[in-house]
Amino acid sequence: MTLFFRSKRSPLKNHKSKILIVDDKEENLFALEELLAPLGAEVVKALSGTDALAILASTPDFALILMDVQMPKLDGFSTAELIRKHPKTRHISIIFVTAIHKDEAYVEKGYELGAIDYVCKPINPKILTTKVKYFLSLDNQNHKLKSLVEQTTQFERGKNLILEYAQEGIIACDENGTVVYLNPASLVTLGETESTLLGKNLLDVLHPEGETYIDWAQSALAEAIANNTVRKHRQLDIVTANQDVRTIKYSFGPYNTAEGSGGVMIFQDITEEIKYQNTLLHVSTHDALTGHPNRVLFAELLRNEIHRSDRHAKRFSVCFVSLDKFKKINDEFGHVVADRLLIKVAERLVNHIRKTDVIARIGGDEFAILFQDVEDGFDIKETAEKLMSTINAPFDCDGRQRYITASIGAVTYPDCGGDAENIIRAGHIAISLSKQSGGNQWVEFEEEFKNSTADYYSFESELRECITRHETVCYYHPIIDAKTGRLGAMEALVRWPHPEKGLIMPGKIIPVAEESNLIIDLGAQVIDNAFAQLKSWTDAGLWPPTARVTINVSPKQFQQGIIITQIKAAQEKHQIGLHLIELEITENLLMSDIESAIQIVKDLRKLGITIAVDDFGSGYSSLMYLKELPADKIKIDQSFIRGLGSQGKDEVVVKSTIDLCHKLGFSVVAEGVEKREQEAFLRQAGVDFTQGFRYAKPMSEADTLAWLKKRNKILDGIYGKA
Hints:
Blueprint: E1 18-22, H1 26-36, E2 42-46, H2 49-58, E3 64-68, H3 76-85, E4 93-99, H4 104-112, E5 115-121, H5 125-150, H6 156-165, E6 169-174, E7 179-182, H7 184-190, H8 194-197, H9 202-206, H10 220-227, E8 231-239, E9 245-257, E10 260-269, H11 271-285, H12 295-312, E11 316-323, H13 326-333, H14 335-351, E12 358-361, E13 366-371, H15 380-392, E14 395-397, E15 400-402, E16 406-413, H16 420-436, E17 442-444, H17 450-468, E18 473-481, E19 487-498, E20 502-504, H18 506-515, H19 519-539, E21 548-552, H20 555-558, H21 562-574, E22 581-586, H22 587-592, H23 594-606, E23 610-616, H24 623-626, E24 633-636, H25 638-641, H26 648-663, E25 667-671, H27 676-685, E26 689-691, H28 701-719
Parallel strand pairs: 1-2, 1-3, 3-4, 4-5, 16-17, 19-21, 21-22, 22-23, 23-24, 24-25, 25-26
Antiparallel strand pairs: 6-7, 6-10, 8-9, 9-10, 11-13, 11-16, 12-13, 14-15, 18-19, 18-26, 19-20
Helix pairs in contact: 2-3, 13-14, 19-21
């Protein structure tokens, strides 16, 4: 048999599948269109169910419809019902785009009205595009098959070859359902031989899982042949010869020839793809350590519970559990033991809640428990105290018993109204109050706490507007070369000149920016301001060639290498040599993902940037990780410098730290220097740089300019012009 042959038949025209996306929000349509663009299909947009029906009335040849459920006037369910009633459009596959929903009746309604599948918001691009690819692939194959069937008499040999070598399974049956043809790909999926299956009824060949047919005449496939309709992009679970349950995606359509009529099924085995999609969904919504829902899924569950509570006038409660001083376990035993302890905590919590309740891990050492349908007899105090009691029992930490405590914040809906994020923040406020009182207690969020919540929201909103309008500024704090007295660096510190509250300091700005995810944009503004100012000083001839501008970096800027993108953008804009830039990172940043942090630090140093580890001694102080980090400087926390001259232990620690850092190849910066005696001790101890109020307080741009001019003039007089 020859695979390649010549024919007088005209070649198949290029087919471009069409997708209709329906949503009442233009921004959602734009986002979906951008997401689907790489697939090469033609995307048609509709802003309502009515618009979608009008488009389908004139152009019904769509491979797929992606439709939002909740739309005004004509919602997704009603639109789907009308589409299914029209003979020209009822074959079009519909995927509903909606939030994760636990109400089975809601989901079943969508399937009853003709939905093929659901895609959950927020949309996972990989899951969406993978689903759509299969629909486009089947649409393209169906187009090819239709063209082949229409030209059967003049292209029979070519058609047979295509059927034989097609990667999709193809089965043909007569109008009574008797199988008359199976291609090799279908036999592979079914695990049978051609001789065994030919002559059998198609339903007996497929063994549809969970479906019972009285006979072929009552089946949907027989109906498709009788009504000359096509069933496109359907999904079916079948049982193979070795009793494996496999999932296939298929299309089934009728054929009519001089020899007879029947139907053709084209299918793909998508079992592994379904498993992969389920795995991706689980990974994106569950905590890898405990297997419980993560913060993303928990927030979605809260939203669903709020809707359910509002509909049925129900109440629910949430307990937020934060372990007290969990960092000590990390410091003493390391991450492996600490992780095992977190797993044990989760197990204990599960054993003390109802089967209907939901537990999630929403932070490093923080859990949340959703108590659904709480009745009048539900005692939040008793529940919280039981949770605390089970956590207080001793844990086995690497063969040693350790006791931990927890702070619990309790929130009840609708007493604490708002959305899911409001509930989570209310829980955090209650936890914070517990920890401020020493921890190991529970606090129920009350009405009187709402002022602090409102203040927080107000400040966050104002900060968001401030960053949007680029209203933040940088103050600069000198770092002095301890050996020469010259300027070693200027640390850029963010400030917010609030029109009513005055100058707002980093201590209030940074925590809110971190929690609200504004820190990425804020960090980019600090970098841009610092580069612009350095360019100004350099052009004015005021900047020493060996000095650097130091910029503090948030751990979130290290995620996915965002900091590298931000630095390169600022360099391109301001044309500043990166050898003049120094970045300060914290120990906490290192400990969050040491391998990733080390790689990003290496990439930054390749650009010529200096790396300093800030506040050394105030956090983990892990020398094991520090010795592996390709950094340049270590900044000793000011809490040690403050005790110089009055606490002998601090002097020993500082001197030992300086010696150790020098042996590891780091230069050392002492921050918080205020007195001459501190400066003298540090110089004698061999410190490389000093920083503190002894030299200057953090200064505005104008004051820094004056400081540079004055200091350069003094140093020129002492050392002569460079």
